[in-house]
Amino acid sequence: MKLVILGLSLSSSWGNGHATTYRALLRELGKRHSILFLEREKPWYAANRDLPDPDFCALAYYDDLAGLAHHRAAIEAADAVILGSYVPDGIEVARRLRHWVRGALAFYDIDTPVTLAGLDRSIDYLSSDTIPLFDIYFSFTGGPTLKDLETRHGARRALPLYCSVDETRYQPQPVTRSWDLGYLGTYSPDRQPALERLLLEPARQAPDRKFVVAGPLYPADIAWPGNVERIEHLAPADHAAFYSGQAWTLNITRADMIAAGYSPSVRLFEASACGAPIISDSWPGLETFFTPDREILIAQTPGDVLAALSRPDSERANIAAAGRAACLSRHTAAYRAAALESAIATSPAPRARTAEQAGAGP
């Protein structure tokens, strides 16, 4: 099968979680299919590329909508084309793709709750009138949101395609344990209160313990406790060692994703595959991915976190092992790739390319 994927970024993981999601999925799909990934050229990604030449797919860049037209022949020849969320000028790209694509056309929403919350605001990568253009709407969010996409927003077929982990790259590493609790994530204003409550305040209350926060874009005015180490950017190649160096790792969920529920972060699967026991905030549907108190711990307060850090090593090890087993059984890239292949294979015939549906694309 020939696949063309247009996504936010594959070449750079700087400041975004999309790259690791695409890399895990495409490495698996690349074992059986021919893949072209098209990435909009952006200076901040160009300056921070940690995978400029992937060995599992072809990677090409385009500067603008006119530049995208240079890849029209490949798009027309593809068996399926997938447009991802946050692609610049995504609304116009979707309309052009509907005009060009001859196979199945899908949207892959790595940010479903953010997307749905922003449809009435100012997102530029999807609009209410472009949702029905897609044959399949792959969503990072499952549960009731899938029905909502079909009934309220006109999605032709909404299916879950959660993030996943490449278990060959995310494994326990033989490193020295450096921190009692760590967190990996780009700064987000709506996550910061939870980071304050579940990591910074525990750090203040337990000055003898060691904490770490890795990720870019944190404001300079944050008052980091002295026992919290900061790592500005951590490349994916260093993630496994980072997780393996923590006694516990913290998961924090964006507000829109908590509201929607059923929206696991890729960090959940990466950390658990590395054998790091997870402390997470609470959100609807979490129990469908990991069993609380057996495969993951839920924390609401600084006291919950400190109680978890005080658990015996035997309990910590049991939770880590159970979480890793759950992850490897149903959250790997191979598992997700099979779901994507099945969805495309059973997709109804693409709807007619009328001028009204396709827009006045070139």
In short:
This protein has 362 residues and is α/β, with parallel strands linked by helices.
Characterize the structure shown.
With about 350 residues, the chain is an alpha/beta fold. The chain has two domains: about 1-165 and about 335-360, Glycogen Phosphorylase B (Rossmann fold); about 180-330, 3-Layer(aba) Sandwich (Rossmann fold), CATH 3.40.50. Helices cover about 35% and strands about 15% of the residues. It has 15 helices and 13 strands. The protein has a seven-stranded parallel β-sheet with strand order 3-2-1-4-5-6-7, sandwiched between helices. It has a six-stranded parallel β-sheet with strand order 10-9-8-11-12-13, sandwiched between helices. Helix 8 links the parallel strand 8 and strand 9. The longest helix has 18 residues, at about 315-330. It is globular, with a radius of gyration of 21 Å. The chain starts with a strand and ends with a helix. Residues about 350-360 have low confidence and may be disordered.
Count of β-strands: 13
Number of helices: 15
Task: Outline the biggest β-sheet.
Answer: 7 strands, parallel
Distance between the termini: 26 Å
Mean pLDDT: 94
H/E element order: EHEHEHHEHEHEHEEHEEHEHHEEHHHH
- The share of residues in extended strands comes to 15-25%
Unreliable residue stretches? 352-360
Query: Could you state the CATH homologous superfamily of the largest domain?
Result: Glycogen Phosphorylase B
